Amino acid sequence: MGRLVVVSNRVSVATDRKAQAGGLAVALQDALQQKGGVWFGWSGKVATRPDPEPVIRQDRKVTYATIDLSRKHYAEYYNGFANRALWPLFHYRLDLTAFSKQNYSSYLEVNKLFVGHLLPLLKPDDLIWVHDYHLIPLGQELRQAGIDRPMGFFLHTPFPAMEILTALPSHRAIVQALCAYDLVGFHTENDLRAFLDYIVHEAEGGIMGNHLIRAFGRTLRVEIFPIGIDTEDFEKLGARSAKTKKAALLHNLPSDRTWLIGVDRLDYSKGLVERLRAFERFLERYPDYHGKVTLVQIAPLSRTEVPEYMDIQHELAAEIGQLNGRFADFDWVPINYLNRSFKRDQLVEFYRGSRIGLITPLRDGMNLVAKEYVAAQDSDDPGVLVLSRFAGAARELPEALIVNPFDLDGVADAIRRAMTMPLEERKERWKAMIETLRVNTLTRWRESFLEALGQAPYE
Ligand code: ADQ
Fold it and tell me: Is the domain of 136 the same as that of 266?
């Protein structure tokens, strides 16, 4: 059996599993330790010297290779092209998308550079799995370097509709690069449909059935692999947190208060401003709830060097100030806003202690928080998930209260409905959701992708 080679923008080196909030990192590490292999990517640091070399660390069967980015590449490849062109575009934010030829050149350059450093680490029968929008051209570069091993790519963001994607000057090159892989995975049918639409109508490609397509002179497999969570772990942590009954944030606060929770990286795709406005609409329309409900919004800062992220941070702070100023009382603030990260067990305490999980992104590839919220609930008294129709998770969790985050009245009504939902209905909806999550786990996601990749080449 071949080794596994994972390439992703960031590498999570296995040191302390418990400290890792991200389940994805653990899932990939488990696969790497089982099969042996390499995890290659950016170290997260900016180089202090020119021409940085990878730092190699060996942990049992896995080689971790991380490389610093030059200041120029950090600005142009990471902040410039990945986070100011592809990220907003893939999240349907053409208004926030900034294209530049220079940034695109750096993007290609970094992908080529990564390949140059990866090649000496490869063995003849490796399976190669590349992750996310930062590294789309990596497979094509590997092919050009003569690697003909099975290569898979998984996109963690949405894949945008053709009309949006074609606004990117290099759209054709990007899709052609995707077609250099043997297997391309998406979260949802929507993403896959958008991709196929492009293949047929822009790339003169064809759909051959059995998940196979033909485009740019290659045959590849394209399929959906909805990412899951470690459901069992979240269920266990949820049960444990109920026993300790001391959610760090919640335990000193009035017990007659109902909590709504939102947990998101501070990103414009997460719909935070719209969420606050919807909550404000709820407070305007249902004054009986004044003094009784608080929205706890956890939003650690993210990509702070990108101007659009500074803007959203300011906008959010202003919105919260205005809202709290308008409604707060001596003994009540409507919004509790926390710009920090928490350990997984603390997050679970917040999830479990909150009557409503308010997860309303404007666009999201999947949204794991929605799944984590459900898994952490008490089966005898579960909370209600209010979930945006534009999160990939809505496809798998139709029993949530599905909302349109742009429709403030609709979200306000859903909050009210969740507040008054009878126990029987809450239990019924929760049961259907947890059953799905127990089947579609993170392990299943990883195994099904690797199984499909193991069958390549498909011709
Ligand atoms: P993200 O945009 O980061 O991921 P999400 O899927 O919600 O979004 O994952 C966030 C993860 O970070 C969750 O596991 C959550 O528990 C954790 N997290 C969030 N806030 C935290 C905090 N304050 N402290 C600690 N942990 C926190 C991208 C895509 C998503 C896709 C995932 C996986 O944008 O759409 O679901 O990748 O493919």
Answer: no
- Residue 255 pLDDT: 67
Give tens-digit pLDDT for 198-218: 999 999 999 998 899 999 999
pLDDT at residue 36 above 50?
A: yes
Ligand 1 pocket, residue 339 CB under 6 Å: no
The residues carrying an active-site annotation are 156, 364
Please check whether residues 220 and 290 belong to one and the same domain.
Answer: no
CATH number of the domain at 242, please: 3.40.50.2000
Alpha carbon of 82 to ligand 1 centroid (Å): 18
| Triad 112, 156, 113: Cα angle to 5° | 10
| Structural domain harbouring 137 | 4-228+442-454
Catalogue the E-assigned strands of 96-241: 127-131, 151-154, 183-186, 206-209, 212-215, 218-224
Position 244, amino acid = T
| 418 & 353 share domain | yes
In-domain check, residue 50 = yes
Does the pLDDT value for residue 19 go beyond 70? no
459 is a domain residue: no
Q: Which atom of ligand 1 is nearest to the CA of 187?
A: 38
Residues 160 and 175 in one domain: yes
Which of 265, 303, 345 gets mutated to test ligand 1 (max ligand atoms within 8 A of its CB)?
A: 265
CB distance 369 to ligand 1 below 6 Å: yes
Q: How far is CA 169 from CA 59, 98, 161, 401, in A?
A: 42, 11, 15, 38
Q: How confident is the model at residue 256 (pLDDT cuts 50, 70, 90)?
A: confident
Q: Is the pTM of this model over 0.85?
A: yes
Is the pLDDT score of 87 beyond 50?
yes
Question: Relative to the CA of 302, which ligand 1 atom is closest?
Answer: 3
- Quick check: 250 pLDDT over 70? no
Joined together, the tokens standing for residue 133 give: 């929008």
In this structure, which residue's CA is closest to atom 21 in ligand 1?
341
Based on the domain organization, do 235 and 304 belong to the same domain?
A: yes
Tell me whether the omega of the peptide bond preceding residue 160 falls within 30 degrees of 0, making it cis: no
